[in-house]
Amino acid sequence: MTHALSLSEDAAWAAFEARDRAFDGRLIVAVTTTRIYCKPTCPARRPKREHVEFFDDAEAARAAGYRACLRCKPDEVGRDRIAVARAVALIEAAEESVSLEDVAAAVGYAPHHFHRLFKRATGVTPAAYARSLKAKRAAAALDEGSVTEAIYEAGYSAPSRFYETANARLGMSPSVWKRGGAGVTIRWTVAETSLGPLLIAATDKGLCRVAFDESALDLATRFPAAEIVQGGAALSALAARVVAEVESPGRDTDLPLDVQGTAFQEAVWQALRAIPPGETRSYAQLAAAAGNPGAVRAAGTACGANHVPVIIPCHRALRSDGSMGGYAYGVDRKAALLKREGAE
Fold it and tell me: Is 38 marked active-site?
């Protein structure tokens, strides 16, 4: 039985049955025979399905007359989410690097426990989140000033610390980034699919752009200083896999990618890729999975900023009321992709 539930009953039961950590804090499971509510990962023996009622949060379960499980302590999940959100705000407000110990102490957790908690909630460690944030600031500053000024302005203690991580985060060296990607080769093709022509473009690292109704001209506008090269054998096999994803989405999860965003955007993209085919999530759920439950609008923006739709399946994101919401390539295509996955 469901009660004011944003997920489908089958999806909620599947998450509970699999003890899926991704649903802790987003799904409450109440047992009608014991009048106890749990989080999906509770280690207790699973009750029969007909004895289970699902809720979106613990408050709703308590209002229905259930009490918290003393074994899995579901009420602490809300505390965990608040702690992660506070930690994100602390890291983003800090002018210099903040140690794990300081962050954990500020939110009232032991360092080793909070390290696991933060990574489970955001997909990255606190240190990785901070590095991503600094790289984002550096990239923005590189557009406006000198490389050296950008490095210090972004919060790096010395240029050497920036150069150690810049290639991994930006996909190219700082000077090349400033010149708009000069020296980077991007291969492209336009493939026919049942949903219309699809631009497929990749660097030697992986896919950097997948988009319906775009051309090489659009690609050159996005990457004005890169070398744009048509097709070639190196791209044909990859393009075939992308087309197969359009026709049967969610089957190929190992396609190589060369995309970067802010730490929050990347956390949203990771959350999207974690959604099983045939299921959907609300923008609010994506924001919570990305570690900032209040950033619902930003989660929608992150979906819109997705460089490789279908591969990062932003079509699985819906409004909280279950309606389609927006989609850069048309709601009809979004509906078609969901239908191919068997989504309700």
Answer: yes
pTM reported for the whole predicted model: 0.53
Instruction: Read off the DSSP letter of residue 257.
Output: B
Phi first, then psi, for residue 76 (nearest 5°) are -75, -20
Task: Point out the catalytic residue in the list 42, 69, 303, 314.
Answer: 314
| Residue of 38, 69, 72, 303 marked catalytic | 38
What is the DSSP code (8-state) at residue 323? -
The 10s digit of each residue's pLDDT in 58-75 is 888 899 999 999 988 888
Listed in order, strand segments (DSSP E) in the chain are: 28-31, 36-38, 52-55, 67-68, 185-191, 198-202, 207-212, 227-230, 281-282, 317-318
Q: List, for residues 198-247, the tens digit of each pLDDT value.
A: 999 988 878 889 999 988 888 888 788 888 899 877 788 899 999 999 99
| Nearest alpha-carbon partner for 66 in 54, 76, 78 | 54
Strands 227-230 and 185-191: parallel
Question: Using CA atoms, how far apart are residues 177 and 224, in angstroms rounded to an integer?
Answer: 11
Residue 327 phi, psi dihedral angles, 5° rounding: -160, 130
Residues 115 and 256: their CA atoms lie apart, in Å, by 27
Report the first-to-last Cα separation within the chain, whole angstroms: 18
Task: Burial-class residue 186 by CB neighbours within 10 Å (0-12, 13-18, 19+).
Answer: buried
Give catalytic status of residue 303 as yes or no.
no
In DSSP terms, 191 is beta-bridged to: 198
